[in-house]
Amino acid sequence: MRIETGRRSVTALSTAAVALVLGISEAWAAAGRPSPWETGMQEMVTELGQSVSNFHTYLVWLIAAICLFVLALLLVIVARFNESKNPVPSQTTHNTLLEVAWTVVPVLILVAIAIPSFRLLRQQLVPPQADLVVKATGYSWYWGYEYPADQGGFKFDSNMITEAKDLKPDQPRLLGADNAMVVPVGKVVRVQVTSADVIHAFALPSFFVKVDAVPGRLNETWFKAEKEGVYYGQCSELCGNGHPYMPIEIRVVSEQQFAAWLTEAKQKYASTEGSAPLKFATAQ
Ligand SMILES: [Cu+2]
Q1: Cα 193 from chain centre
Q2: Ligand 1 centroid to residue 28 C-alpha, Å
């Protein structure tokens, strides 16, 4: 009886521990930031990101199956065809069935990878009709965001918070920014990305967004965040000594909160009118 109870409490304890660990990692992952001991991707909050994350899992299983198959073949060869067990090696060559099989099977595997891969690539590179366009400019070493005229026409800089005392309670060190990019939830946001000096890259893992910010060139990417929250990314192009200190903070809020933020932001940040337009290289 006592053993039974002991066993039961051990089971309950381990279940609680697993739940705790899962709960914590989920809570951290859900916040759009890296978490300790994380081995997979950050939790994706866009449909595209979720599809990519599933594709990644599918590839891992496929790779695992191939590795186990090759390992099994190697073990069979070591066990059955070593010199003592098989002193006279077979001289068989040009086995048609075998040669066709080892050509066709890898081709089929590549097709099974290519089809979903190209489908995802298309989904990522052909953006849907945008509800909001934001321009992100990389500077050495911070980001600048610009909202178009129909949203109020303002721009502001976003710098990393350097002093621990200035961080908000939910802001992680090295990722928290003084002015976040704010976007509404469930809307297609197109981000135009460029740079004012060297090559940077605008990357946000939980949206599955990563695009180069190249001076004189306007790149674009898009996302549709399905969940409100604060999401963090970083410059992902080795751009200089301030490279690790130019985080990207995006706050996804409800439409009402976004409207309220816009009203506030229009007053807080100066108008873009009168600012010098960015010059872009023209094709000759
Ligand atoms: Cu950079």
Answers
A1: 17
A2: 25
What digits encode the pLDDT tens for the residues 220-234?
Answer: 999 999 999 999 999
CA distance 46 to 186: 9
**Separation of 278 CA from ligand 1 center, angstroms?**
18
Model pTM?
A: 0.78
- Asked whether 199 and 238 are in contact (CB, 8 A), the reply is no
Ligand 1: centre distance to CA 157 (Å): 14
Q: Determine the pLDDT at residue 93.
A: 87
DSSP conformation letters of 62-94: HHHHHHHHHHHHHHHHHHHSSTTT-SS------
Distance 213 CA to ligand 1 centre (A): 8
Tell me the C-alpha to C-alpha distance, in Å, between residue 181 and each of 35, 140, 184, 189, 271. Answer: 22, 18, 10, 11, 16
Q: What is the per-residue pLDDT across 138-186, written as a single tens digit (0 to 9) for each?
A: 999 999 999 998 888 899 999 999 998 889 888 889 999 999 999 999 9
Q: How far is the CA of 47 from the centre of ligand 1 (A)?
A: 27
